[in-house]
Design a protein that fits this description.
This protein is an all-alpha fold. The chain is built from ten helices and no strands. The two termini are 42 Å apart.
Protein backbone atom coordinates (compact mmCIF):
# COMPACT_ATOMS: atom_id res chain seq x y z
CA UNK A 1 0.00 0.00 0.00
CA UNK A 2 2.90 2.36 0.67
CA UNK A 3 4.17 1.78 -2.88
CA UNK A 4 0.67 2.42 -4.20
CA UNK A 5 0.41 5.67 -2.24
CA UNK A 6 3.83 6.80 -3.48
CA UNK A 7 2.89 6.03 -7.09
CA UNK A 8 -0.39 7.95 -6.81
CA UNK A 9 1.36 10.92 -5.23
CA UNK A 10 4.14 11.01 -7.84
CA UNK A 11 1.71 10.73 -10.77
CA UNK A 12 -0.52 13.43 -9.28
CA UNK A 13 2.39 15.79 -8.67
CA UNK A 14 3.68 15.25 -12.21
CA UNK A 15 0.31 15.97 -13.77
CA UNK A 16 -0.33 19.04 -11.63
CA UNK A 17 3.26 20.17 -12.18
CA UNK A 18 2.64 20.15 -15.91
CA UNK A 19 -0.60 21.99 -15.21
CA UNK A 20 1.28 24.77 -13.39
CA UNK A 21 4.09 25.01 -15.97
CA UNK A 22 1.88 25.62 -18.98
CA UNK A 23 -0.65 27.73 -17.09
CA UNK A 24 1.27 31.00 -17.46
CA UNK A 25 1.67 31.08 -21.26
CA UNK A 26 -1.87 29.87 -21.83
CA UNK A 27 -3.24 32.51 -19.50
CA UNK A 28 -1.33 35.26 -21.31
CA UNK A 29 -2.45 33.95 -24.69
CA UNK A 30 -6.04 33.82 -23.50
CA UNK A 31 -5.83 37.42 -22.25
CA UNK A 32 -4.43 38.69 -25.57
CA UNK A 33 -7.05 36.75 -27.51
CA UNK A 34 -9.82 38.14 -25.33
CA UNK A 35 -8.60 41.70 -25.87
CA UNK A 36 -8.52 41.22 -29.64
CA UNK A 37 -12.02 39.78 -29.65
CA UNK A 38 -13.40 42.71 -27.66
CA UNK A 39 -11.66 45.23 -29.89
CA UNK A 40 -12.84 43.53 -33.08
CA UNK A 41 -16.43 42.86 -32.19
CA UNK A 42 -18.14 42.95 -28.80
CA UNK A 43 -20.94 40.77 -30.12
CA UNK A 44 -18.49 37.89 -30.59
CA UNK A 45 -17.49 37.91 -26.89
CA UNK A 46 -20.12 35.40 -25.68
CA UNK A 47 -19.15 32.92 -28.40
CA UNK A 48 -15.47 33.28 -27.58
CA UNK A 49 -16.15 32.78 -23.90
CA UNK A 50 -18.11 29.65 -24.63
CA UNK A 51 -15.17 28.21 -26.54
CA UNK A 52 -12.85 28.57 -23.52
CA UNK A 53 -12.68 25.23 -21.75
CA UNK A 54 -12.92 24.79 -18.01
CA UNK A 55 -9.35 23.50 -18.01
CA UNK A 56 -8.09 26.76 -19.51
CA UNK A 57 -10.12 28.84 -17.07
CA UNK A 58 -8.63 26.95 -14.11
CA UNK A 59 -5.13 27.52 -15.45
CA UNK A 60 -5.78 31.24 -15.84
CA UNK A 61 -7.21 31.59 -12.34
CA UNK A 62 -4.35 29.50 -10.93
CA UNK A 63 -1.78 31.94 -12.33
CA UNK A 64 -3.81 35.01 -11.37
CA UNK A 65 -3.93 33.82 -7.77
CA UNK A 66 -0.15 33.74 -7.56
CA UNK A 67 1.86 30.57 -8.08
CA UNK A 68 3.70 31.10 -4.79
CA UNK A 69 0.47 30.73 -2.81
CA UNK A 70 -1.35 28.38 -5.15
CA UNK A 71 1.33 25.68 -5.17
CA UNK A 72 1.04 24.90 -1.42
CA UNK A 73 -2.74 24.63 -1.80
CA UNK A 74 -2.22 22.39 -4.82
CA UNK A 75 0.21 20.23 -2.85
CA UNK A 76 -2.42 19.83 -0.08
CA UNK A 77 -5.11 18.53 -2.42
CA UNK A 78 -2.69 16.29 -4.36
CA UNK A 79 -1.26 14.63 -1.25
CA UNK A 80 -4.67 14.49 0.43
CA UNK A 81 -6.26 12.80 -2.59
CA UNK A 82 -3.35 10.36 -2.86
CA UNK A 83 -3.84 9.27 0.77
CA UNK A 84 -7.63 9.14 0.34
CA UNK A 85 -7.43 6.94 -2.76
CA UNK A 86 -4.95 4.62 -1.05
CA UNK A 87 -7.28 4.33 1.97
CA UNK A 88 -10.31 3.59 -0.21
CA UNK A 89 -8.44 0.82 -2.03
CA UNK A 90 -7.19 -0.62 1.27
CA UNK A 91 -10.62 -0.52 2.91
CA UNK A 92 -12.29 -2.06 -0.13
CA UNK A 93 -9.85 -4.97 0.08
CA UNK A 94 -10.40 -5.23 3.85
CA UNK A 95 -14.19 -5.46 3.53
CA UNK A 96 -14.99 -9.19 3.62
CA UNK A 97 -18.11 -11.32 3.91
CA UNK A 98 -17.96 -12.06 7.64
CA UNK A 99 -21.00 -14.33 7.59
CA UNK A 100 -19.41 -16.61 5.02
CA UNK A 101 -16.10 -16.57 6.90
CA UNK A 102 -17.81 -17.59 10.14
CA UNK A 103 -19.44 -20.51 8.37
CA UNK A 104 -16.07 -21.64 6.99
CA UNK A 105 -14.42 -21.39 10.42
CA UNK A 106 -17.24 -23.31 12.10
CA UNK A 107 -17.16 -26.05 9.47
CA UNK A 108 -13.37 -26.28 9.71
CA UNK A 109 -13.56 -26.61 13.50
CA UNK A 110 -16.09 -29.41 13.27
CA UNK A 111 -14.19 -31.25 10.53
CA UNK A 112 -10.52 -30.77 11.43
CA UNK A 113 -10.30 -28.90 14.71
CA UNK A 114 -8.43 -25.71 15.56
CA UNK A 115 -5.56 -26.23 13.12
CA UNK A 116 -7.86 -26.50 10.14
CA UNK A 117 -9.73 -23.38 11.29
CA UNK A 118 -6.35 -21.60 11.46
CA UNK A 119 -5.69 -22.55 7.85
CA UNK A 120 -9.03 -21.07 6.82
CA UNK A 121 -8.22 -17.79 8.58
CA UNK A 122 -4.67 -17.77 7.24
CA UNK A 123 -5.91 -18.10 3.67
CA UNK A 124 -8.63 -15.44 4.03
CA UNK A 125 -8.01 -11.72 3.50
CA UNK A 126 -9.18 -8.90 5.73
CA UNK A 127 -8.83 -7.83 9.35
CA UNK A 128 -11.61 -10.12 10.59
CA UNK A 129 -9.75 -13.24 9.47
CA UNK A 130 -6.58 -11.93 11.16
CA UNK A 131 -8.48 -11.40 14.42
CA UNK A 132 -9.89 -14.91 14.28
CA UNK A 133 -6.43 -16.35 13.65
CA UNK A 134 -4.98 -14.55 16.68
CA UNK A 135 -7.81 -15.91 18.82
CA UNK A 136 -7.31 -19.48 17.58
CA UNK A 137 -3.60 -19.20 18.33
CA UNK A 138 -4.46 -18.91 22.04
CA UNK A 139 -7.25 -21.46 22.14
CA UNK A 140 -5.15 -23.84 24.27
CA UNK A 141 -4.81 -21.11 26.93
CA UNK A 142 -8.56 -20.91 27.49
CA UNK A 143 -11.46 -18.92 26.15
CA UNK A 144 -10.65 -15.98 28.42
CA UNK A 145 -7.27 -15.55 26.72
CA UNK A 146 -8.94 -15.97 23.34
CA UNK A 147 -11.38 -13.17 24.14
CA UNK A 148 -8.59 -10.87 25.37
CA UNK A 149 -6.57 -11.62 22.25
CA UNK A 150 -9.54 -10.87 19.99
CA UNK A 151 -10.21 -7.55 21.74
CA UNK A 152 -6.54 -6.50 21.73
CA UNK A 153 -5.86 -7.44 18.14
CA UNK A 154 -9.16 -5.83 17.11
CA UNK A 155 -7.81 -2.51 18.43
CA UNK A 156 -4.64 -3.02 16.38
CA UNK A 157 -6.65 -3.67 13.23
CA UNK A 158 -8.80 -0.61 13.89
CA UNK A 159 -5.66 1.50 14.12
CA UNK A 160 -4.51 0.16 10.75
CA UNK A 161 -7.88 1.00 9.20
CA UNK A 162 -7.61 4.59 10.44
CA UNK A 163 -4.01 5.00 9.31
CA UNK A 164 -3.51 8.18 7.28
CA UNK A 165 -6.75 9.84 8.38
CA UNK A 166 -4.85 12.37 10.48
CA UNK A 167 -2.98 13.55 7.39
CA UNK A 168 -6.20 14.01 5.42
CA UNK A 169 -7.72 16.07 8.24
CA UNK A 170 -4.51 18.13 8.37
CA UNK A 171 -4.74 18.96 4.65
CA UNK A 172 -8.44 19.80 5.06
CA UNK A 173 -7.50 22.42 7.67
CA UNK A 174 -4.30 23.53 5.96
CA UNK A 175 -5.65 24.22 2.45
CA UNK A 176 -8.15 26.99 3.38
CA UNK A 177 -5.70 28.39 5.95
CA UNK A 178 -3.09 28.82 3.23
CA UNK A 179 -5.75 30.35 1.01
CA UNK A 180 -6.73 32.86 3.70
CA UNK A 181 -3.09 33.69 4.28
CA UNK A 182 -2.61 34.41 0.58
CA UNK A 183 -5.72 36.60 0.63
CA UNK A 184 -4.46 38.60 3.60
CA UNK A 185 -1.08 39.12 1.94
CA UNK A 186 -2.82 40.17 -1.29
CA UNK A 187 -5.06 42.63 0.57
CA UNK A 188 -2.05 44.13 2.28
CA UNK A 189 -0.46 44.59 -1.15
CA UNK A 190 -3.63 46.26 -2.44
CA UNK A 191 -3.67 48.73 0.45
CA UNK A 192 0.02 49.41 -0.09
CA UNK A 193 -0.84 50.35 -3.68
CA UNK A 194 -3.56 52.71 -2.43
CA UNK A 195 -1.11 54.30 0.00
CA UNK A 196 1.53 54.72 -2.71
CA UNK A 197 -0.97 56.28 -5.15
CA UNK A 198 -2.41 58.57 -2.51
CA UNK A 199 -5.86 57.94 -3.92
CA UNK A 200 -8.33 55.07 -4.21
CA UNK A 201 -8.45 53.82 -7.77
CA UNK A 202 -11.20 51.20 -8.17
CA UNK A 203 -9.49 49.67 -11.21
CA UNK A 204 -6.12 49.22 -9.49
CA UNK A 205 -7.60 47.98 -6.21
CA UNK A 206 -10.14 45.62 -7.81
CA UNK A 207 -7.43 43.68 -9.64
CA UNK A 208 -5.40 43.16 -6.47
CA UNK A 209 -8.43 42.12 -4.42
CA UNK A 210 -9.55 39.64 -7.09
CA UNK A 211 -6.13 38.02 -7.14
CA UNK A 212 -6.11 37.84 -3.33
CA UNK A 213 -9.54 36.21 -3.14
CA UNK A 214 -8.61 33.53 -5.68
CA UNK A 215 -6.27 31.89 -3.16
CA UNK A 216 -9.14 31.58 -0.67
CA UNK A 217 -11.41 30.17 -3.37
CA UNK A 218 -8.96 27.45 -4.36
CA UNK A 219 -8.21 26.68 -0.72
CA UNK A 220 -11.90 26.22 0.05
CA UNK A 221 -12.41 24.06 -3.06
CA UNK A 222 -9.52 21.81 -1.99
CA UNK A 223 -10.91 21.53 1.55
CA UNK A 224 -14.42 20.66 0.32
CA UNK A 225 -13.14 17.93 -2.01
CA UNK A 226 -10.97 16.38 0.69
CA UNK A 227 -13.79 16.62 3.25
CA UNK A 228 -16.09 14.57 0.99
CA UNK A 229 -13.43 11.86 0.65
CA UNK A 230 -12.72 11.99 4.40
CA UNK A 231 -16.35 11.45 5.35
CA UNK A 232 -16.70 8.63 2.83
CA UNK A 233 -13.66 6.88 4.29
CA UNK A 234 -14.96 7.34 7.85
CA UNK A 235 -18.26 5.70 6.86
CA UNK A 236 -16.40 2.74 5.35
CA UNK A 237 -14.24 2.38 8.48
CA UNK A 238 -17.29 2.47 10.75
CA UNK A 239 -18.95 -0.23 8.66
CA UNK A 240 -15.91 -2.50 8.82
CA UNK A 241 -15.49 -1.95 12.56
CA UNK A 242 -19.15 -2.85 13.19
CA UNK A 243 -18.69 -6.04 11.18
CA UNK A 244 -15.54 -6.83 13.17
CA UNK A 245 -17.36 -6.45 16.49
CA UNK A 246 -20.37 -8.52 15.42
CA UNK A 247 -18.17 -11.22 13.92
CA UNK A 248 -16.01 -11.37 17.07
CA UNK A 249 -19.07 -12.04 19.22
CA UNK A 250 -20.25 -14.79 16.85
CA UNK A 251 -16.73 -16.21 16.77
CA UNK A 252 -16.63 -16.54 20.56
CA UNK A 253 -20.02 -18.28 20.49
CA UNK A 254 -18.68 -20.75 17.93
CA UNK A 255 -15.61 -21.50 20.06
CA UNK A 256 -17.75 -21.92 23.18
CA UNK A 257 -20.00 -24.38 21.36
CA UNK A 258 -16.99 -26.25 19.97
CA UNK A 259 -15.34 -26.53 23.41
CA UNK A 260 -18.54 -27.78 25.04
CA UNK A 261 -18.77 -30.54 22.42
CA UNK A 262 -15.13 -31.57 22.81
Amino acid sequence: MKKLFASIAVLSMMSFGAFAQDAQPEAEAASVEAAEVVAADEAAAPAAAAEVSMHQVLKEKFVEGGVGWMLPVLACIVLGLAIAIERIIYLTAANTNTKKLLEKVENALNEGGVEKAKDVCRNSRGPVASIFYQGLERYDEGLDMVEKSVVSYGSVQMGQLESGMTWISLFIALAPSLGFMGTVVGMIGAFDSIQAMGDISPIAVAGGIKVALLTTLFGLIAAVILQVFYNYIVVKIDGIVNKMEDASISFMDILLKYKSNH
